[in-house]
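I am writing to request your help with a piece of structural work I have in hand. I am sending you one protein, given as its amino acid sequence and as whole-number tokens for its backbone shapes. Kindly check, if you would, that the fold set down in the tokens agrees with what the sequence suggests. You will find the record immediately after this paragraph:
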Amino acid sequence: MRIVVKVGTSTLAHKTGNLNIRRVEELCKVLSDLKNAGHEVVLVSSGAIGMGLGKLSIREKPSDIPTKQAAAAVGQCELMYTYDKLFSEYNHTVSQILITGSDLKDPTRHGNFRNTVFRLLELGAIPVINENDTIATEEIVIGDNDTLSAIVATSIDADILVILSDINGLFTGDPRKDKSAELIKEVKEITPEIMELGGDSGTKLGTGGMKTKIVAAEIATGGNIDMVVANGKNPEVLYDIIEGKDFIGTKFCARK
């Protein structure tokens, strides 16, 4: 299987913005194991801005673009250093691809992006993809890495997209406020009612909420790719998802 896994800032970092070492180590271990089993793995990773803010001792996500770009420049270095170190422990090579909206909209650049990913997979490397936040502006920004991961998945003909977040999946209400809210295990069609279940950003350091994940599901399922939203606090959930076992999360079914 060709697997695209997206991890959000809330999965990678503590609320302080500093790296959640134990969780990232477990994530890299599981992804390495999946690769050892013969799967192709592409990682879409948030966290550059959040980790940069932590290193710069800025506690909340700034609203001005220059500070975001500065934080991304600092955080992306630590993010890739961490991935390189941890994946190397399992004899896997990582590569970094930073893209903007323009890279995906321009046919030539989009084709170059696809060719690069395919060649990296052929060579046995793990592509780590993120939006190029150091140069992205309002005109060329993709917006959030949930959307980016869905575009990546459809671009490279992935078999499945898994979004690891800080929530178990899509609920009938906001589980943080409504204790009677129930997890929706499977979504066969994204209706207006499903769209209304999306909320705003769940954390101060992140950009995505369930709404962006439902939008991502529209893109992925429209490209005949199943998409799963699950809680990233236990990366081993990836085993159950890939092996087709029962898991805690929400599956958005591809439009066949």
Remarks:
- The longest strand covers residues 2-7.
